[in-house]
Specification:
This protein is mainly α. The protein has one helix and two strands. A two-stranded antiparallel sheet has the order 1-2. A hairpin with a 5-residue loop joins strand 1 and strand 2. The longest helix has 15 residues.
Length: about 80
C-alpha cells in the first residue's frame, strides 16, 4: 500500500511542464493508466479514433491517485 508521500508529486524539470492548465499538478500518472477505459474524464476522440486527453486533469488532480486506483481495482475484480 502506498504511503501518502508516494501519491502526489510535481516534476517541474519535465520538458513538457506545464502540460495542463492547473496550478497544482500530480505528475504520477503522466501517461494515464485509464486511457483504454471508460474513465469519465474530459476527453475527446480525434478524427482517427484516438482518445485525446489533453483537456483532462482527472489523474493529475489532488484526489487523482484514489480515483485511478479505484477504477483499476474495479477492472481487476471484473477479470478475476
Amino acid at each position: 500500500m502506498a504511503t501518502e508521500h508516494n501519491k502526489f508529486f510535481t516534476n517541474k524539470a519535465c520538458e513538457y511542464y506545464p502540460c495542463h492548465a492547473i496550478e497544482r499538478i500530480n505528475c504520477l500518472f503522466c501517461f494515464c493508466p485509464l486511457y483504454t477505459m471508460d474513465c469519465r474524464g474530459n476527453f475527446t476522440v480525434t478524427d482517427k479514433g484516438f482518445k485525446d486527453c489533453s483537456n483532462c486533469i482527472l489523474p493529475h488532480s489532488e484526489k487523482g491517485y484514489e480515483y485511478v486506483v479505484s477504477k483499476l481495482k474495479k477492472l481487476h475484480n471484473s477479470v478475476k
